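Section 5: illustrative case.
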């Protein structure tokens, strides 16, 4: 009887060993066949791949368009910038009124009407379009009863301007936009009071516009270390010190 019990225990042990062996084999096979988790997209100087792709596309547009006629520059830039997502300043930048640099708008992939217009203005300027032909124009958008900004293009000083807008993405002469009531316009060389279909009356230097001056200063700072600012702008919704922890060149 004792012999039979020992034999029975021995059989159980052997069976248990077989089961363990099968489990181990299945485990190894399972691990071998399980796909490895996808690696995160590598960062270059802390810059995400999709961020760099947007910046590269913007720079390619500028470089490609330097020899284009004005009308092609206008249409290409208007279409490119209007792809950005519209976001109010208070949501995007946590400020009531903030003028983002073109680089900030491209990196963060969004902005409000002022940011869209500023990005268009400086992109066209970078493509070689004479700044004398361009103005940033404040209007009242009657359809939404709100202040609004567009880019005005003048083929010559007394011409009726064409308007580049994000509310109506078609570039139209000012006379075809009765929904926009002009207030004033400006560029790097001056400030003009409103006139619906033409340039308006010159009112002095644009230096009196503090947000404009601050914007130009910010762009100068960016130019000194563009990669660092691209990285930081990715984390625009974080406090500065927190954003810097993601950017190796600022640590």
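Designed sequence:
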């Amino acid at each position: 009887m004792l012999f039979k019990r020992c034999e029975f225990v021995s059989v159980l042990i052997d069976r248990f060993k077989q089961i363990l062996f099968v489990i181990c084999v299945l485990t190894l096979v399972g691990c071998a066949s399980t796909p490895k988790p996808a690696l995160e997209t590598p960062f270059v100087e802390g810059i995400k791949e999709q961020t760099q792709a947007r910046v590269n596309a913007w720079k390619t547009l500028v470089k490609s368009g330097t020899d284009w006629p004005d009308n092609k520059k206008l249409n290409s830039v208007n279409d490119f910038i209007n792809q950005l997502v519209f976001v109010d300043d208070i949501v995007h930048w946590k400020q009531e009124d903030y003028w983002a640099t073109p680089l900030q708008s491209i990196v963060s992939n969004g902005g409000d009407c002022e940011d869209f217009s500023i990005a268009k203005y400086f992109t066209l300027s970078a493509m070689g379009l004479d700044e004398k032909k361009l103005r940033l124009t404040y209007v009242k958008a009657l359809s939404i009863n709100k202040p609004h900004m567009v880019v005005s293009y003048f083929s010559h000083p007394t011409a009726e301007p064409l308007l580049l807008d994000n509310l109506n993405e078609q570039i139209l002469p000012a006379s075809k936009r009765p929904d926009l009531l002009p207030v004033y316009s400006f560029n790097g060389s001056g400030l003009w009071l409103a006139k619906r279909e033409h340039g308006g009356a010159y009112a002095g230097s644009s230096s009196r516009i503090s947000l404009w001056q601050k914007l130009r200063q910010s762009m100068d700072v960016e130019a000194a270390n563009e990669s660092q600012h691209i990285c930081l702008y990715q984390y625009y919704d974080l406090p500065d010190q927190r954003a810097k922890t993601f950017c190796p060149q600022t640590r």
